[in-house]
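Late entry, evening session. Most of the bench is empty. Finally got around to the prediction I had been postponing all week. Sequence below, unchanged from the version circulated by S.P.
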Amino acid sequence: LGRSYQDVVGAVTAANVRCDVDQDLYQTASRIVCRTRASPVQKTARNPIIIKLRDEHKYTAISNESFMYVDPLVTRIEPLKGIASVVLLIIPPSQFILSPSWFS
């Protein structure tokens, strides 16, 4: 998964869209946390997560699991009561964690 953050920055894609590796959460050779960017088109197909460190096959890792963009659906907001003048809805950015077990 790379020896340093610099090895993996710009090398990860999910569903064929580049995603941004979180430098603070990166753990050398064991974990990559990546925040996806917006999909340029409506994505419905499942696609692998790919880490391509160089333009050679032996430096490419492809996940066994698939990634798919979905439209978020808010089903509940809590708390229902609070400060009357403030309403805050937080939807976290898309985030996934890559672990070595995902790769063949």
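Two things to note before I forget:
The chain has one domain: 5-102.
The chain is about 5% helix and 30% strand.
Will write this up properly tomorrow.
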